[in-house]
Structures are given as C-alpha cells and as structure tokens.
Amino acid sequence: MRIHCKMALLVTAFAAFFVHAENLVVLGDDAYAPVVYLKDGKVSGVLPAILSRAQSITKDTYEIRLAPWKRSYELAARGEGGIIGVSYTEDRSKIFDFSKAMYDDNIQIVTLKGHTFPFSKLEDLKGKVVGGVNGASYGQEVDAAIAAGLFTVDRDVSQPGRLRKLLAGRLDAAFIGNGQVGFEKIVGASEELIASRDKFSILPTPLTKDPLHLAFAKSMGKKEAIERFDMALEQMRKSGELKNIIAAAAK
Q1: Whose CA is closest to 217, among 104, 66, 112, 82?
Q2: Which DSSP symbol is given to 66?
Q3: Which side of the chain, N or C, has fewer Cβ within a 10 Å radius?
Q4: Which helix (H) or strand (E) holds 46?
Q5: What is residue 242's three-state secondary structure?
C-alpha cells in the first residue's frame, strides 16, 4: 500500500509539473553569429541550441523569432515575448525578470593592423569611434563610459557591416562578440571579408565578459517559466552537457 501511495504522489508531482508547461515566444538577434542568428532563414546558434535541449527537460516549448536586436528588445520590453542574449543591467532589471546566465560572451575589440593601440582599461578608448550593436548594452561600466562621452559608439545592426566600416576607415575599432570564434564566423561568411582577413587585428584584452540571459518582461508574469529553465540549465551544467552543446553550436 505504501508503495502504491508513493507512486501516486510521484505521478501527481509530475502531472503538476507538466500542467504548468507553456508555449513561450522567445525573441532574439538575427545577426549575432555564432551566439544567435539566422542561417539561410533558419534559427541557428549557441543560445537556440541551449533552448532546444532545455525544452526537453522543462516541457515548455520555445518558439524562437529573430529580428534586428533593437526591434527584438523593444518587442520583448512590451511583453510580446521573452528574449535571449540579453545582458543584465540595473535598469533592465526594473523591466525584466532574468534567468541565470546561459552563456558568457567575450566582447573583443577588433582594429586594423597598423592602427592597433594598447588596451587594458576603458580610458584607453578615450576619443575613439567604435562600432557596436544598435540597442545593445556592454555592461554597466562600459555603458556608463559611453554615456559620459569617453568614447563614441557608432551603432549598427550587422557585425559584417561593422567590419566593412572598419576596413573603410570609418571606425577606429569594432566590438565583436564571442571572441575569436565569433570573429572567424563573421569573416568566414563573406568573400569580401575573407579576402581582407589579414588586415584585421584582435586586441589581446577583451572589452568585457558579458553573461547572456533569457528574460521576460515582468508584465508577462513568467517567473515560474524562468525557474523551470534555470533548473534545466543547472542540470545541463552539472552533467557537462551544456559545455558540449556550446562547443558544437559555436563551430
């Protein structure tokens, strides 16, 4: 009898878990390879791969819709879906509920060879014009330096376009996500950039390590969905599966 009672309790617990599973729209950047992007019209990248595995654990489904970052962020802020690849800031925490960090994104500084400069602190960017993503945060310290006018960020929606501006001499440097892997992914997708590969130089010290999250506007009331995702993320992390997913998706 006790065995039957225990089994009944387990079935009830699992049933309660599945009842709360939801279909969740998740927005993101369409051009941030290899983190999240469209490839031949198909959702690709590290973060979608993590969500794909997570949904088999949470039983939620994540309907991923990608667009230029600024548009995706604005839609998410209005509660039209969650968002992946978002950095945590105090201002954003007033609007969004955040998951634990999904992925650490090293933001590199790319220059042209012959025009490199020493970089170890933000003051080394003083007076420079640097290409960056429209609507993106690079962390509170970097955002504060930009707001104070220490250096200027020329905003765009395309990392390949940013490197082309650098080649044309319109920028002193460019912020490129996901370290060396991200840089090579961008260059390798364009014949023009492949031909100019040797003209670029990545500064040894990254701008910052940027933890990326899944987040939902507080107005959507999705804290339970975030808790389920965090549970799945922790399970993948402990098993080593998360590391393998990231390595495979970043190729």
Answers
A1: 82
A2: E
A3: N
A4: helix 46-58
A5: helix
- Sequence-separated (6 or more) residues with CB below 8 Å from residue 82: 24, 25, 26, 27, 76, 214, 215, 216, 220, 222, 225
DSSP assignment letter at 196? T
> How many degrees, rounded to 5, is the angle at CA 124 between CA 118 and CA 127?
125
Give the C-alpha separation, 33 to 55, whole Å: 22
pTM: 0.82
Q: Which residue type is seen at 85?
A: G
The closest alpha carbon to 22, from 174, 229, 189, 194, belongs to: 229
CB 178 within 8 Å of CB 135: no
Per-residue b or e along 222-249, where b marks 16 or more CB atoms closer than 10 Å to that residue's CB = beebbebbbebbeebeeeeebeebbeeb
pLDDT < 50 regions, the chain:
1, 3, 10-18
- pLDDT value of position 178: 87
Domains observed in the chain: 22-104+210-249 (3.40.190.10), 105-209 (3.40.190.10)
CA quadruple 185, 206, 87, 182: dihedral, nearest 10:
0
Q: Find all residues with CB under 8 Å of 147, minimum gap 6, and list them.
A: none
